[in-house]
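HUMAN: Please help interpret these tokens:
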Amino acid sequence: MRPDDAPYRPNVGAVVFDRRGLVFLARRLGNDGPEVVFSGFEWQLPQGGIGLDEDPAVAVRRELREETGMVTVSHIATLGRQVTYDWPPYFGPPHPLTVWRGQVQTWFAFRFAGDEREIDLASPAPGETPEFDIWRWERLDRIADLVVPYKRHIYLEIAAAFAAFARPA
């Protein structure tokens, strides 16, 4: 269990829209310490930690490439503020993420302009294991219903902030 005054882990997230205005969503393979996945809520947007002294705009493109293989994206917006979520109670084995209370995130919106063959969930960065097993394009207004409850408030905010991009390009 982590103390309630622990810091938040710096993190980035990506909302990737296709040409139709649908959003890339992937199904998590399982838990990562306190980042638990609840049955029926396995879907999420790509996200990941920011390295020490790494620019968030660089980190989000790195995370997209590492987790999904996507590189043919163009930046269309950044959420105007950072958002946070706390991990749910965790009683599992020691894990590096337990030093953090949760995550503080900077969210970016992108338009995917590549060929879907570019998307590759099975080939993460060297030394990493795949985080997702399948992906799909989904309506933006549905994403909050598909994510774990402790992230739902963030997905609702993202959906409201980026709603203008959820139409054909």
